């Protein structure tokens, strides 16, 4: 009997512990909870939805259900969409939005029980409509550069008294994005959402426009390249002609100097020969005859057909006579 009582007490303690464990729930930091009972959202005495903030809370076990919502800042990256500028030209703009839940009760009711995909779809529609109206106020130059043409002209005008203000002032694109942030933020409040920031990630031209622009840029670059090549060839021909002219001038000057030196050398040689001849004409004749003999008779293959009394053999004949 006593053992049966202990078993019942143990079972009862386990049952109480299990029920007590299922009666508690924790909402972590950065989240909020919505409690539903039999599928209906619990409300406070003021008929407002009961929202559980971060901390430890109680519920009726097995009856109450907890829907946890992420209250941290979320990022919604919209797919690239086509927008029309003030110039009636198309641009492909990719943007993103930072948002978070500020009214969990409203968010839960307007998004079919806190469905994040539905919330983002509703936000995406509002963002696209607002950006479309705001982008339509800007030109392509203002969107890409982020500067207002009028402010940019004023900023570079030193005589303008408002040039300093123009340099300090916000860009046109930033102003439009702030207007879009306010516009989207006011409509997002209806969903219980706060829009933290709206930014443009990427700006592209439509494919059909990009291809034509690239072709035009390529044609322009080709024209510039051809111009540079023609200028280079012209300068190369000029340099080559100048070098050829300098070569001809230097060669002519060198040949003239060579002929001058050769003439001077020949004159000096002639003077030396004449001086030597005048000093001893007979010896000079003898030396010249010996040189002629050496040049004519040392090869062994020359044949001379001359009379013995020819002047060429004069010194041979003198040697035989002696």
Let me know the number of strands: 10
Gap between N and C termini: 180 Å
Query: Rg, please?
Result: 55 Å
Beta-sheet strand percentage?
Answer: 15-25%
Low-confidence stretches: 149-170
Give the overall shape.
Answer: rod-shaped
Mean pLDDT across all residues, rounded? 78
Describe this structure in words.
The chain is 57% helix and 18% strand. It is built from 10 helices and 10 strands. Strands 2, 3, 4 and 6 form a 4-stranded antiparallel β-sheet that branches. Strands 7, 8, 9 and 10 form a 4-stranded antiparallel β-sheet that branches. A hairpin with a 2-residue loop joins strand 2 and strand 3 (40-41). Helix 3 packs antiparallel against helix 7 (172-188) and helix 8 (207-279) crosses helix 9. The termini are far apart. The model is unreliable at 149-170 (pLDDT under 50).
List keywords for this structure.
rod-shaped, four-stranded antiparallel β-sheet, alpha+beta, 322 residues, 18% strand, 10 strands
Protein topology:
Elements: H1 2-22, E1 24-27, E2 31-37, E3 40-41, E4 51-52, E5 55-58, E6 64-70, E7 74-77, E8 81-84, E9 90-101, H2 104-110, H3 116-135, H4 140-145, H5 149-155, H6 163-168, H7 172-188, E10 193-204, H8 207-279, H9 281-297, H10 314-321
Antiparallel strand pairs: 1-5, 2-3, 2-4, 2-6, 7-9, 8-9, 9-10
């Amino acid at each position: 009997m006593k053992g049966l009582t202990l078993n019942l007490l143990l079972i009862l303690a386990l049952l109480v512990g299990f029920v007590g464990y299922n009666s508690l729930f924790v909402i972590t930091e950065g989240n909020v909870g919505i409690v539903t009972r039999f599928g209906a959202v619990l409300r406070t005495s003021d008929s407002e939805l009961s929202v559980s903030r971060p901390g430890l809370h109680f519920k009726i076990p097995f009856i109450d259900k907890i829907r946890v919502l992420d209250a941290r800042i979320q990022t919604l990256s919209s797919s690239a969409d086509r927008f029309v500028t003030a110039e009636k030209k198309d641009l492909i703009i990719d943007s993103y939005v930072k948002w978070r839940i500020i009214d969990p009760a409203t968010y839960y009711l307007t998004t079919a029980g806190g469905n994040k995909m539905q919330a983002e779809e509703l936000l995406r529609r509002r963002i696209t409509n607002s950006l479309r109206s705001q982008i339509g106020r800007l030109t392509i130059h203002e969107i890409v550069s982020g500067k207002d043409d009028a402010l940019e002209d004023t900023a570079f005008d030193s005589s303008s008294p408002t040039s300093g203000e123009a340099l300090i002032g916000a860009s046109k694109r930033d102003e439009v994005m702030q207007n879009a942030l306010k516009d989207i933020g006011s409509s997002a409040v209806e969903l219980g959402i706060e829009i933290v920031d709206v930014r443009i990630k990427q700006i592209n031209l439509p494919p059909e426009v990009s291809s034509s622009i690239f072709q035009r840029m390529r044609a322009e670059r080709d024209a510039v390249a051809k111009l540079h090549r023609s200028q280079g060839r012209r300068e190369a021909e000029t340099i080559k002609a100048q070098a050829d002219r300098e070569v001809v001038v230097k060669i002519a000057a060198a040949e003239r100097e060579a002929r001058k030196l050769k003439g001077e050398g020949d004159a000096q040689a002639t003077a030396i020969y004449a001086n030597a001849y005048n000093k001893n004409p007979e010896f000079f004749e003898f030396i010249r005859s010996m040189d002629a003999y050496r040049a004519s008779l040392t090869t062994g293959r020359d044949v001379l057909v001359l009379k013995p009394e020819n002047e060429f053999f004069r010194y041979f004949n003198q040697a035989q006579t002696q």
